[in-house]
Amino acid sequence: MRLLRVLEVAIVLLLAVGGAWVLVARPLDDRLDAMLPQDPVLLQSMQVLDDAKLSGRVIVHVVAADPAFPHAEFVAAMDRLAAELPSPHVSRIVTPAETMPTPEEMRELVKYAPQLLGPDTYSALEERIGEAGIDQSLAAIRRMMMSPHSIPMTEWIRQDPLGVRATALQPLETLGKATGFRLSVVDGHFFADDQRAAMLILETPVRVTDHAGSVRLMDHIRACLDRLPAGLTGSIIAAHRHTLSNQRILRRDIGWTGILATLFFGGLLWIHYRDLRSAIIFAIPLLGILMGLGVVGLTGMRLAAVVLGMGSVLVGISIDYGIHVFVALKHPEADRSREEAIRLIRPTLWLSALTTLVPVLVLSFSAIPGYRQLGLLAGSSLFFSLLLAMRVLPAFFPQDLKAAPVRPVPASRARAHSPKRTLAIYGGCLLMAIAAAAGIRVDFDLARLNGAEADVLRDEEAFFDRWGAGPVGMGIVATWDEDPEIARQSNDAIYRQVSAMDDLSGALVSLSPAIPSEKTRRANAALWTGFWERHGDAVREKLDRLAPEHGYAERAFDPFFETLFDGLDPAHFPATNRLLATLAQPFAHAAEDRYVLLSFYPDRPAANQSLETLHDLPAAHALVSRRGLQGAFSAAVLRDLVRQLSVALVLVAILIAALVRRPVSIVLVAMPPLAGVIGMLAGLRLAGQPLTPVTLLAGFLVAGICFDYGLFMLEAWRRRARDEIGRGVHLAWLTTAGGASLLLVARHPVLFSTGLALALGITCGYLAARWGLPSAAQLLRIPSTRAGESA
Amino acid sequence: MIELRWRLLRRFAAAGLVAASLAVARSSFAAETDASADSLRAALAAWQEGLQQVSTISSDFTQEKRLALFRDPLAIQGRLFLSTDGRFAWETHSPVRYKLVVADGRIRQWDEESGRVQTISMRDNPAASTIHSQMSVWFSGRFEELADTYSVELIAEQPVVFRFRPILGTPAADYLQAVEVQLHPDGHYLNHVRIFERSGDQTFISFVHTVLNPDLPDATWDVRRIAEDRPAPDVVDPPSSE
Lengths: 791, 242
Fold this sequence. Notes:
- The structure holds 2 protein chains of 2 kinds.
- Chain A is of the alpha+beta class.
- In chain A, 61% of the residues lie in helices and 8% in strands.
- Chain A is built from 29 helices and 12 strands.
- In chain A, β10 and β11 form a beta hairpin.
- The longest helix of chain A is centred in the first third of the chain and has 35 residues, at 239-273.
- By secondary structure, chain B is α+β, with helices and mostly antiparallel strands.
- Chain B has 4 helices and 11 strands; from the N terminus they run ααββββββαββαβββ.
- Chain B has an 11-stranded antiparallel beta sheet.
- In chain B, α1 (2-23) packs across α3.
- The radius of gyration of chain B is 18 Å and the shape is globular.
- Chains A and B meet through α4, α6 and α7 of A and α1, α3 and α4 of B.
């Protein structure tokens, strides 16, 4: 026994120390990813978004409040800002100037134009090399040469009088503008259409999940923005702000709820019992949670901040066991030993624990990491709290316990209590609640998990209102392969197929026209060769005939024919050309084991539907619609929760049926959870709150906790100990609902909605347990015997 | 398609000239000997002094382009206007009617054939910006603005002729060989400008009826308003120096 005791203490200490280490030494996971299902489709979509590195960019948004703010001053301020921003935290500033080529770059690109011209351009080319087309070109060139800045163009004109090679470079212009925003390039900067706002797009090596780096990055940018002249205000649009904001809010909430929970539980227990030993009741769940954190630490999971934020709820649930044990020891119905008191209550305690533990532990098998963590933490905390309650509390009571005096029920209360009336009220309330709950709105929007502060959301709303949705409004078609050539061939195939779609023709922004695969370039080069072999002589004849009429010299366009078949070798292509490399950045990414190519399209349901028909691609591909992500998320969460709920219900039903046995008793025990869940849904609806993945999870806990109330109140009825056990249930409700209500001061939406749902549900379940169940038991004539009495 | 090529070619020229302004280190004007350096400095100083009191300039011009592209030289008549507050207007009357106005950091151009006004910023079209600033330098004598990209020598004193050569490595050196500027005998303003391109093409601009400090009406800077044509002056071909 002594050895067992030592072993018990050692395990408690080990787990408690482990839990403390998880809290103190390991950083919390502030990402919202913990609340996303590990669904293959979702994971793939998140990977594509990560490949697109869209979340790594930072936008600095500068606005002139006064429409009359001088444009020249605005441009000068933007120039200064662009000069001050580069730092270790800002690796690059994306500017319009980056897409301006040097003469060498243009010469290089123009040379390889034949490899870029696809089959669909040759019909327009045929028109251009006709008599009228050539005549028009010659007249236009002559006019162009009259302008004062035509001097650098002569060489170009002679090599490409018909603008054929220039046509091949047109996709480069489209790529350079493919930001998805409504903007103009003015004086070297991105300006909004109304010219009252400008932006700089920054690339940063600081990852969104790097808290310290994000703080330094934001501080640096804000310091630069503080130096803007009066009349200009700057704001930052970045995922880093969301991360920092979420973290600030969560940590504040955890801190505040922790303090309030301590005051609340400590004060409540003291007021209720006026017994210093009641402090142990509070200490038990704290130690239980610490040990639960130790178990989480053993699994290697990084604890999600959102899960820790529900600490006050866990305390409120776990504290119930200590309360019931305390009641059994402090107010026994008859004189008995403390061991006997524990023995009598143990079955009910275990059954109560199991009805809560089972649904909670089922969460440990969820596809959502946050739910798994919550299930493991809550389940182990509850388990340890139960054991600690049964092992530790009795030590603080004398061996022999004296019966608590029976308090007679006042006659007025006895006469006033009418079970039929009580049940009628219960039934009526239940029906009204069902009616109210039926209209609840379901909202599985990912944004609901975001606890970003109001100023972050306000800045973003103002930005997107002015500039359009940008990349956020664009869907992504991704294709990848370990061989870059195969990935490019797949990208080309996607471009060809989408160009043939009526509703998407011209809408896909793709790298394919600018940097096609070698296979495509080879085919294009063959087309060019064939075309000019067929038409070259005729074009020369026309130029020789028409050019003199416009005053051109006899050999004016010899350079065109001399270089006509240059740049045809597909093995030689300027892939490292600075301009191409710069323009390709948003579209091409070399990951560890694959080369990824992205194309962007307007994210609309009709477009998504059309793109589902992409077929016969040489590489893997995926469609990522941000709007579609919400649907995918909802479906994945629902699937997971339905699976968990079904398993939990079946297990709990089996458990209760096995242990409670009598069908009537099962019905009685089911009254509080039924009232609790329906009451929760009705309450949320009346409060204008939708049903979210978080409140759905709260429903799990409500059902489990209210089962406990039902079990204890049935036990109270059977043992005719309504007052004693009823007080325990009352206090259990107070602590659990109180603990949940503390979350109503939380600013994070996940914590707030959890607290609201739990408080509403548990209260409705408690009311049903306290008054509805005994009335039903009375009407159904369930046997009731006090200790020492005959049945 | 013509517009596309024009746009792309402008970018080509623009990029080159932007790169030039960033890439080239400052250098002083070259001089072959100490004596010629003194003459150069004196001639430049005289030129600058002569223009100190000038705030506006208007001048007719005849531009002759001898390009390998064309059988015969292209002859263009027009008028230019310049103000030391940064405004510049270039009109052509024959053979096409065209106007370009540079003001407030913007370039606006109009041609009779399209009838459209195109507006671009100087920053987004450095080619035109550079040409405008070169013109401004020639008429204002603020040649120190070209010190980073050109070397200058005095090749004749009566009349004064300066030769500006783009410094090797600048994008202008890619297509320009030299620009020769001949002053009016009184040394106050330009008489001729001759542009020699590396391809062998040449442009010769002759300025006549130059008026210093004219009163320029607001219509001067209206890109849609072209002054009445005047008879084209005779072109006087200066001695070839290349």
